[in-house]
Amino acid sequence: MTEKTFTKAELAKFNGKDDVKKYVAVDGVVYDMTDVPAWQGDQHHGQTPGNDLSDAILKAPHKKSVLAKLPVVGKLTD
């Protein structure tokens, strides 16, 4: 199976609005946050889905430790 790739513009479409899934990128990997309870609202601690959160995750108390539990949906290309 070919891995899905996303540009930043394509990633931005996965913002959770209009029944669209919620995706975020960290270090070039795109994760599905749709079913993560902490992401059920429009944002999570001021961060919104559809974005590259590589810098923001380093400021979070959990850092990157949560990423291993998340479904990977592809790679960010730019």
From TrEMBL:
UniProt superkingdom: Bacteria
Domain annotation Cytochrome b5 heme-binding: ranges: 6-77
SUPFAM superfamilies found in the cross-reference section: Cytochrome b5-like heme/steroid binding domain
Listed InterPro entries: Cyt_B5-like_heme/steroid-bd, Cyt_B5-like_heme/steroid_sf
Protein name: Cytochrome b5 domain-containing protein
Organism from which the protein derives: Agrilactobacillus yilanensis
